[in-house]
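tool=predict chain=A
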Amino acid sequence: MEWYPTPSYLLKRKVILDFLRTVPVRDVLEVGCGAGDLLVALAARGYRGTGVDLSDDAVEAARERVANTMVTVARGEVQDVAGQFDVAIASEVLEHCADDVGVLRELASKTRPGGHVVLTVPAHMSKWGANDDFCGHLRRYEREELHDKLAAAGLNPVCIYSYGVPIYNLMKPFYDRAIRKKCKQERDLRVRTEESSGMWLFTGMKRIFFLLFNDLTMYPFYLLQRLFFRTDLGNGYFAVARRVEQQGESA
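tool=predict ok
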């Protein structure tokens, strides 16, 4: 499975990792782990954990990348995972799910009392584009909608940040144009939900992406996006919710 860093991915990864530094974390579950880049970053920080994905290719790639670490990878969905974790992460997953509140409840059930569910989702239906169609998205989210669905799942929303301003805003139209062009070039191209559209669009430019987009070159944008967290200007939302400890439960 091809993988290379894109600006939008690096921006969301930075927000996730920065948050994890602020809470006690021993182990992490990532649902929809893809090729495992976030798992690699988690393992490098000493976390134990599990990643699951529905794509056989993704699971194989992720297993290779986290070999000899305290992170394991399996094919499956959130309900297939045994045990509970300090943090459950679902990055770019919820928008694919018909029963998104149900999936949030499942994520909460895999989180220890007092633990956290961490999400990233695409923002604003007004921003719907070719990438959403191709990836099989069912929706893009508004801030209030996301807050209400977290609460409906029995979670206590902690924060919802609008991330990626301005570079993600600039890149999205570029992705949408590239996907429309690619779809016209290929016959019988069906919507796929098991892989990211970005991982097949620019495979010939993989080395260039690694050179241009990394933690060093993106650092100014990491800082800049923080200025816009509490706005609704970004094309994506980062959200954290806490599993409320019920009477009789212990962490």
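The two ends are 38 Å apart (CA to CA). The chain has a mean pLDDT of 90.
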